[in-house]
Fold:
Amino acid sequence: MIKISALFLVAGTTLGCHRSASIPRLPENHGTTSCLDGSLSASLFKGLGLPCPKVGEKLPANFNSLTKKVDGNCGEKNGFAESAELFEEVFSNRSTYRPVIQELYKTGFEDPFEERPEIKNYVTRLLKKFEPKTELDKASILFRAAASYYSVFRIEGKGYRGLALEDGGLSIHPSLDRGAIGEAPIRIKYGDVLPKELISADPKEREADCLEYSHLLISLLRAAGIQDAHVKREEIEKEPHAYVVAVLDGKKYKLDLLQNEFTPTTTIAGSDRESIAFHYHNEGDVFFMQGKLDEALKIYNRALEINPNNSPTLLSRGDLLARRGRLIEALESYNKALNVGGGQADDWNNKGVILAKLGRFTEALAAFNQALLLNPEYADAWHNKGNALGKQGKTEEANNCFRQEQEIRVRPRRVKLPIP
Structure:
């Protein structure tokens, strides 16, 4: 929590498993194409053999015929080129658009599902050793290989544990300390960790959060010929969580390395584009926590090129911009995020802080009230509401808020005991 002029701004958290020169500002419509040199959108259009429209410029008349399979999925919308839909098309049909993806790689684009020779070679050696007969057998071996040796789970009624290093296992340990997400040696070196980085790392430094685990497992499965495997994200007790949904021998399974779960499911997973955007979101959060704000902002902007309506990224970007004093831009990010996803109490409190810093106290009060509607025990929001009322000369109402804040702060809090 950061105190700013007697107002509290709650820092964003890494989501997806847990929440440089002048960085160009995104246009108000984050879905529009930005053809700045080095942008993903510019490389995407270049790979498709298309001129890249500038913001506000209509797509060429022959756009659909040039993009072939994109026809019907992407076109003119309010005069803007929706590059996010192109990303969806490209990454849903990787073999068709392989040259386009290669063009993206030239920009330093990070793809958690990139076909890598080291991953293919590892999977080939492992499967040759165990000689699995079915897709379920292959997935079981790969699941055990990615899990920590100390992990214990059941697959189709049989008990298993993670493979030891000497048996070909990667022995990747779960990363559970969200507060230290930017401090682990592997993250200090790489940021958000890609499958190729996990495989090449020193075994003692291999650790992954749920999204990194999921990306690795999908890469292993696809190298084994199991293509229908994708990330599913959901919330568990208000905490974001990710796992893999894969079709094995015609049956759908949930593969959750962090929860040691390998069970049948009917869940519908997300797309590669959404997962790639969350990789960049988490990468931005790592750099944000490490204090590398320029790099973090650049990465958040890249994530929003891929998924412009990703509420967690918009919120993190808003937090960063607010810390930099770029309050109008921060407010735009917050408004877009809250319009997309509704928001939690922290998000509304932060929006109120930004509005109060801009001197817009009536709007700030509305935001603080929304935060308190979602969480009436939110002491920081009561404090901030009191400050905003004080700025309007409403001293008695302000003091009532401060009294409410103090009552909440002195109450004994329940402590969650560790599980033995």
About this structure: The radius of gyration is 23 Å.
